[in-house]
Write a structure and sequence with these properties.
Largest sheet: 4 strands, mixed
CATH architecture of the domain at 164-347: Roll
Shape: globular
Number of strands: 15
Radius of gyration: 22 Å
Number of helices: 8
CATH class of the domain at 164-347: Alpha Beta
Distance between the termini: 31 Å
């Protein structure tokens, strides 16, 4: 299925990360045009960035915006779909009509056959890679600490780690109790042990949506024990969190944390909410229904988990604004309890592709 990002707005403007407070004028990023008359140029620049990063793909003009599962969209790549069993396996073979016009822009590819197998258990997938029966595994969660140690000791020459420009966060619904009270939102931010979560994901703790690797990032964390001028997160402040919750009078309320899978960070947030005096529980909504569920205000979701990876190296990739002649739509989430950055590891390579659970430890701090 081709991943397509809509580029149909009249313009897409990126803004300087050093934005003033809400209600004050915003400053257009110098690389893009604010004028709607020149939005075509801005769209072209954005499209080039998206295409280079692999988040957007060229498709025939007039293609309907649909999920291309059973009827793939025409494309120009070196591989074609030879077979697909939903939820089980995807098999790609060489495209006999492909001609390599530029090894740098669109190489022919090395394997003759690529097989993605879905639904693998991460532990089994890692073992398959180590034994040479698989080459790669995709997983958007934490690699267990014992497996990380194993990779770094037994397979040190084949294991490489790098920070990814992404964050994990918790979205708080500011229109539903108890998070409609700013004291409760602040309490959760003070209470979260970002360091613990960062260690779980082999990541770095942070308190903002812009990852540290992106231009415009500046250390800033008011939600910490003993804040300093360095802007670094020092540790959780449970005493302050409990005082805020006591003042809000919301202790004892039911709170449900919604996520698309059972995750360490989800379990941690539920346990933390219980320590803070709430009757907390977890609810899992798998697959595409997750996004629909948390986005529908009628469901009154109180708190949910999320994550975001920068599409290109600009702060606006994490906090951009899309604009049209009629309105401005902010694309950042309503309220974040905190954020995380990420790290990725690679293990031994072999012959086929097991593609379902990952080898990327994404990161940590709510």
């Amino acid at each position: 299925m081709a991943r397509r990002r809509p580029l149909s707005n009249d313009c897409f403007a990126l803004f300087d990360p050093a934005l003033p407070r809400p209600g004050r004028p915003r400053i257009p990023h110098p690389a893009f045009n604010w004028s709607t008359e020149r939005c075509g140029e801005s769209i072209a620049k954005l499209a080039a960035l998206e295409l280079a990063q692999g988040y957007t793909f060229a498709v025939p003009a007039g293609s309907a915006p649909r999920e291309a599962i059973r009827r793939p969209l025409p494309a120009t790549g070196p591989y074609m779909i030879a077979g697909y069993r939903p939820g089980v396996e995807l098999r790609l073979v060489r495209n006999p009509h492909f001609r390599e016009w530029s090894p740098a822009a669109q190489p022919a590819g090395n394997p003759d056959v690529i097989v993605y197998r879905f639904g693998a258990v991460l532990d089994d997938a890692l073992t398959a890679i180590q034994r040479g029966s698989a080459d790669w595994v995709l997983n958007h969660g934490a690699v267990p600490a014992d497996r990380r140690r194993e990779l770094r000791t037994r397979y040190a020459s084949q294991t490489h780690t790098a920070l990814l420009p992404g964050i994990f966060y918790a979205s708080l619904n500011t229109r539903v109790p108890p998070f409609d009270d700013v004291r409760v939102r602040r309490a959760l931010n003070y209470a979260v042990d970002r360091g613990l979560l960062a260690r779980t994901f082999d990541a770095l703790p942070t308190c903002q949506v812009i990852p540290p690797q992106l231009p415009g990032y500046s250390p800033y964390c008011p939600y910490t024990r003993g804040p300093t001028r360095s802007g670094a997160w020092i540790g959780p402040d449970l005493a302050k969190a409990r005082r805020l919750i006591a003042a809000s009078g919301t202790a004892g309320m039911k709170v449900t944390f919604v996520s698309d899978a059972a995750t360490p960070e989800g379990a941690y947030v539920v346990a933390l909410l219980r320590r803070l005096g709430y009757r907390a529980s977890a609810r899992t909504v798998p697959g595409r229904r997750y996004g629909q569920t948390i986005s529908d205000s009628r469901n009154r979701v109180q708190i949910s988990g999320g994550g975001w990876d920068a599409e290109y190296p600009a702060a606006s990739s994490s906090s951009g604004v899309s604009c049209s002649r009629r309105r401005l739509d902010t694309t950042a989430s309503t309220s974040c309890s905190a954020s995380r950055t990420s790290s990725a590891s690679s293990a031994p390579a072999s012959r086929t592709m097991a593609g379902s659970s990952i080898m990327e430890a994404r990161a940590a701090a709510l």
